[in-house]
Specification:
310 residues; mainly beta; SH3 type barrels; five-stranded mixed sheet; 1 helix; 9% helix; elongated
């Protein structure tokens, strides 16, 4: 009898130990989120240079460890050469990150939006909007809210329509679903409109981003801290022609041309130059010129709005 009791106690202890081990292993396993990627036209998708398939990715469910990744979308080689798309994305545990890209011949005419979720306190919802170009007008359910970057607080959970409008760029209108206790992070890249006039387009895709959150609360503050339009420095016109080759700034829809830290529309804005000004060209890339602003300052401008003079 005594041996049976000891045996039963041993079995119980064994199951307890197994349960503890399973719990510890699960707690140490990477928390995962979901990723969905769509593009027009269909293209190859890479995460940190690893090929994960072709769009659409995550039509049913694509699980991925939480963290930051470099997403790259590479179109097929065809009669029309389309530009690659590249963006940093953040995967949050137990939520959906949604990416939609419309590829075009140039990075400047490619449009996209990336939607993600962040946990916050309370039972209301928020939207954080960052756009390229910045300073775009933000409308929620056709009501003006301000200019990007910005956070819209105290919103009612449910279905809404988000519109981003900027002069000279194609308007984007996105159907979204807000969740109680979550902030929707929206990063939107507008495409240059044909002829520099604003064109409205309705995005029919409806990203829900509604993966049911688990009990553990994802940590982290909003990835966007809106501080209004960045302070920029206007450079002075150069009277004498600079050393050749130089860039002659053309007329632009905004009345100025942004100078960026790198050859990408997502790069930080360093300054603004005006039509008619001339700057020596230091380097060239597809759709971009690197110009000499001052003796110790340089930056990148779109070659679409600059004429090269040899």
């Amino acid at each position: 009898m005594k041996q049976k009791v000891v045996f039963l106690i041993g079995i119980v202890l064994l199951f307890v130990i197994i349960g503890i081990v399973i719990t510890v292993v699960r707690s140490r396993a990477p928390k995962q989120g979901e990723l969905k990627v769509e593009s027009q036209p269909s293209a190859s998708v890479f995460l940190d240079d690893k090929h994960i398939g072709r769009t659409p990715i995550g039509k049913t469910s694509y699980k991925i460890d939480s963290g930051e990744y470099t997403l790259k979308i590479t179109p097929d080689t065809g009669t029309v050469t389309l530009a690659n798309f590249q963006e940093k994305i953040k995967i949050t545990p137990n939520t959906l990150t949604y990416v939609d890209v419309t590829l075009s011949e140039s990075e400047l005419t490619t449009s996209s939006y990336v939607l993600g979720l962040e946990k916050m306190t309370g039972n209301k919802a928020e939207i954080s909007v960052v756009s390229t170009p910045d300073g775009a007008n933000i409308l929620l359910d056709d009501e003006p809210k301000g200019v990007s970057p910005m956070i819209i607080s105290d919103l009612t959970p449910g279905d809404h329509t988000l519109s981003i409008i900027s002069r000279g760029f194609t308007q984007r209108t996105i159907k979204i679903k807000l969740n109680a206790g979550y902030r929707l992070i929206a990063g939107v890249r507008l495409a240059l409109a044909p002829g520099g006039s604003s064109v409205a387009t309705d995005v029919t895709a409806t990203p829900s981003a509604t993966t049911t959150p688990a009990k553990p609360t994802p940590k982290g503050s909003p990835s966007v801290t809106p501080t209004g339009s960045p302070k920029v420095t206007s450079t002075k016109a150069i009277v004498a022609d600079p050393a050749k080759p130089y860039a002659l700034i053309k007329d632009t829809p905004t009345g100025f041309l942004r100078v960026r830290a790198d050859s990408a529309t997502s790069a930080a804005e360093l300054a603004r130059v005006k039509p008619g000004e001339k700057y020596s060209i230091l380097e060239e890339k597809t759709d971009w010129f690197k110009i000499q602003l001052e003796a110790t300052k340089s930056g990148w401008i779109s070659s679409q709005y600059a004429q090269k003079v040899d």
